[in-house]
Amino acid sequence: MSVSPAHLVRLHSASSYCTGTLVAPDVVLTCGHFFIPLLAKLRSVMCSVGEERRRIDELYLFPGTDIALVTLTKPVVLGDFPTIGPPPSLLSQTVTFGFGGGARTPNARAGRYLTPLPLAVSRAGYTRVRPAGLVLSGAIKGDSGGPIVAKGRIFAVQSLILDPYGRNLRLATVALVSPRVVDKLEALKRR
After folding, report:
1. Angle CA(168)–CA(117)–CA(187) in degrees, nearest 5?
2. H or E stretch including 154?
């Protein structure tokens, strides 16, 4: 199944927020960099799925990439959940979903998958994305963690945007969903 607005999660603390995707009744796929300043106060993060609110039970970070899996304290009842797939061929159409720009409802941003990258690093140097990809899209701050979809499957999450001097160049670095993330997701679904 592909992503629908019902699967999109707004993760927020008192001072920041990001986007995620409900990929199982109690598992959210999102970015890792959102949690770095919040590790000591993880319980302060609220996960909003439509009108429902959940707290985080456990956080799984994947060192060397910008992906996290979050388990929720209580499942969200939905029929089906999005699936993970491989990166598409170069120049394939993509859609980036997210709550960027302070949106209360998710936006869908059309784009194109440009190329895989062996590594990408944030300006400050603390976010490393491996494996990474480059997508031409209008992703903005707050879309981080949102799913990048091609051919109906999630293949990456939004990680970094290229915005020198505050000007968005419409080039987004995405964290490709690696096999170790898929393996952990499958293990969490079986528990």
Report:
1. 105
2. strand 153-161
Assigned token pair, 181: 């993330």
Which CATH superfamily groups domain 5-81+180-190? Trypsin-like serine proteases (2.40.10.10)
137, two tokens? 């899209």
> pLDDT at position 80, please?
93
Collapsed DSSP state (helix, strand, coil) of residue 56? strand
Q: Which residue has the tokens 């879309």?
A: 143
Q: Are 1 and 83 a contacting pair, CB within 8 Å?
A: yes
Tell me what pLDDT residue 158 has.
96
Indicate the DSSP class of residue 187: H
- Where in the chain are the domains? 5-81+180-190, 93-177
Spatial distance between the Cα atoms of 45 and 4, rounded to a whole number of angstroms: 23
Fold classification of 93-177 is Thrombin, subunit H (2.40.10)
Q: At residue 2, what are phi and psi to the nearest 5 degrees?
A: -85, 175
Q: Output the pTM of the full model.
A: 0.94
Q: How many CB atoms lie within 10 A of CB 37?
A: 11
Question: What is the per-residue pLDDT for 1?
Answer: 65
Q: Give the residue from 51, 47, 46, 3 showing the smallest Cα distance to 23.
A: 3
Let me know if the fold of 5-81+180-190 is the same as that of 93-177. Answer: yes
Q: Which of 43-47, 62-66, 146-150 has the highest mean pLDDT?
A: 146-150
